Amino acid sequence: xxxxxxxxxxxxxxxxxxxxxxVLKAVEQKGWALFQVYDLKERLAAKGFKQKPLKIIExxxxxxxxxxxxxxxxxxxxxxxxxxxxxxxxxxKIIGMKPTIISQFFPEVSKKEAExxxxxxxxxxxxxxKL
Length: 131
Hints:
Layout: H1 3-6, E1 7-12, H2 16-30, E2 33-39, H3 40-45, E3 54-60, H4 62-71, E4 81-88, E5 91-97, H5 100-105, H6 111-129
Antiparallel strand pairs: 1-5, 2-3, 3-4, 4-5
Helix pairs in contact: 2-6
């Protein structure tokens, strides 16, 4: 499996913090719910580990979540959707998991259904990465 099958990655010229704010704005504009933002660098630093900046932003489309859960409740293992903002080698990247991967594990979800959700994720990542 190629990384592009699993993730949509956009490199941005924005600072790390600007990219995080841009993701939050893109999520709001798309009408999705924001669940939680995890600061992995901060959480691991509290345990004595050093990491580069990484935030995991959990988001949800209630309509899609309900639709998928009605097909198989184990799909909840892949929920909520996530968009990460990471800093690697001085570059800021915005990364969204492609929901079409769900249809490979759960045949009850058609690729077409997952593509609808994936379009939203890709648009949010792309919009957040723009200057």
